[in-house]
């Protein structure tokens, strides 16, 4: 049945209020308007960002809302003026848009598109939602809202990918993998033969390790208080794994002892201000680079000694691994198809959408690296 131009009824996981579990509901998804794309989501990852939002009732004020931002699917229909994708195309959703016109998009070294800020409203560009449930409008999330069988996204937040790419794998390139892998390759620019340390061995941290290995790092030290993650970290490229709780001295001193002078590249993939400070202090004093990959809560203040910078250390932020989203994601998918990296180790669980709350509980245990949901 041709659904172009018609309202589609489908299932979605709705977050109705702070502290509540996600609820599977029937929703209505309106047709795309100008420069918008309606997508049938095939697979979506449950990312750490959603976990933080579900754990922190004050993370946003837009309720009810459809979360999810790590998705892959097939274009169902397009709005007026859409030229880069068409019905039937396989696509990846992009929480970070690429408008191609703002200062960040035009700068060769920038990727934080100004249009990202639109997502904070939870509405489309015209100030309305394309979702309704039980007669009420439902907010969008992260320019994407992939916890829905169908979603409507702006064209600048969608990129076409290889027609034979497995969506249940490459959906990770929509956020978690690209964020970590790019932090090493694009943001830090890890050099061959260098030493690296990665704080936090979740899906993003493991992706950082994969990036460090691909860049030719000689030593990659994984740091986490959960020893159950060490085996997986070594599988993807870590040469050493340590638990800070096993030592009486601060972790930065441990890393200095292990390397003789501190690591050349350090990555914080947790989003904890204390570990950011420790990661920076773990860097080589003259040329060490520390990259914040984890999502720090809005308003978080860092308590860092200014003396750490005197000798030449640098601290950098990174969003989406520094990639220009529409431009680079399709290339990363092509690299995956060419077997330049393997996503399988990052996916430890797969469930259907109606089991999403079970997936949330799995993530809380620390035994789940990444759960992919099938829609």
Automatic annotation (TrEMBL):
Gene Ontology molecular function: all-trans-retinol dehydrogenase (NAD+) activity; zinc ion binding
Domain Alcohol dehydrogenase-like N-terminal: 34-161
Keyword terms: Metal-binding, NAD, Oxidoreductase, Zinc
Domain Alcohol dehydrogenase-like C-terminal, first and last residues per copy: 203-333
Family (UniProt): Belongs to the zinc-containing alcohol dehydrogenase family. Class-V subfamily.
Role of this protein: Alcohol dehydrogenase. Catalyzes the NAD-dependent oxidation of primary alcohols to the corresponding aldehydes. Oxidizes secondary alcohols to the corresponding ketones.
UniProt name for this protein: Alcohol dehydrogenase 6
Natural source organism: Equus caballus
Gene: LOC111772844
